[in-house]
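Thread: Newbie trying to understand structure tokens

Hi all, I'm a second-year student working on a class project, and my supervisor (Dr. K.) asked me to get a predicted structure for one chain before our next meeting. I've only ever worked with sequences, so writing a 3D structure as a token string is new to me. If someone could post the tokens and maybe explain what I'm looking at, I'd be very grateful. Here's the chain:
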Amino acid sequence: MYVAVKGGERAIEAAHDWLADERRGARDVPELSVAQIREQMALAVNRVMAEGSLYDPDLAALAIKQARGDLIEAIFLIRAYRTTLPRFGASRPVETGAMRCERRISATFKDAPGGQVLGPTFDYTHRLLDFALAAEGEEHVSAPEAPARAGDVPHVAGFLGREGLIQGEPTVDDVPPDLTRQPMDLPANRALRLQALARGDEGFLLGLAYSTQRGYARNHAFVGELRIGAVAVEMEIPELGFAIELGEVVLTECETVNQFTGSKTEPPQFTRGYGLVFGQTERKAIAMALVDRALRWRELGEEDQGAPAQDEEFVLMHCDNIQATGFLEHIKLPHYVDFQSELELVRKLRREAGEGREAAE
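---
Reply by user tm_fold:
Sure, no problem. This is what the structure looks like when written as tokens:
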């Protein structure tokens, strides 16, 4: 329960004005444009799109500017805007096998069919500040190599599958539930879990994924394949009787290869963890794949180690940073009446305790 505060509206308006002034910063520094954020802070833009569940680099860049670089606030803005958009249909499942890869690596096969494409990555950079970037002049870089052609980079897991060395993925005919249109229902099937992980907080998933590597789930994994690139988005048009291409989106896909001792019905083989995220968001995709695999312990007939990453309710109900932010930040809003009742209760208990001591004496 909240109590009215005199002058509250004027104070809020003044706070908004102050926020806008702080957002602009010093006037002798040029204002940061949305285009600059989109082009030069692309990884932040990608995270906002992924966790905001809306693929639009311009809107994500605008949200980052409005949020003063607070990515969770920017994700909140994007999700709020997303709810205002009309939904006129659903696209067909994207074909990641036909991805036009600009980065594609495998940690399991040196000579992976289709080749290794390092692409734009921090993996081999020195973690030293480059003060040349602080110069105001134009940065001179050499032209990058042309990306791999679409369709010439088959999935590594497919080659393991031909030998029966990796568990096959069952064909699912049912339309998966839509987490953005209906509330989470536990226990969740894998399709729903993957949706929740795809829009989950990167830091939370990173911590859970790291915990699996340290033994909390006994889930040693290899990155079978990590690929980043553009895929076509198609939609079936009933009036036409065929699908048309609406455009392209950039995705990061990760498949991990994990040991599996087998069961009474299945021989020893590898199993998979899977991650698919908007944009170049490889840390998130790898973490998602590790957590996905940890959550599959029950369907694979494995032992529950009691690890956090294996607890479906713990993971899925706490990975959403917008829900977490709402619950966390609401406690800074007025709770005067609630606190006064607690205060009176503590005072009463202290009086009763004091009276009891006096009586005992």
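A couple of things are worth pointing out once you decode it. Residues 96-119+147-319 form one domain. The beta strands are 100-105, 221-237, 242-258, 271-278. Feel free to ask follow-ups in this thread.
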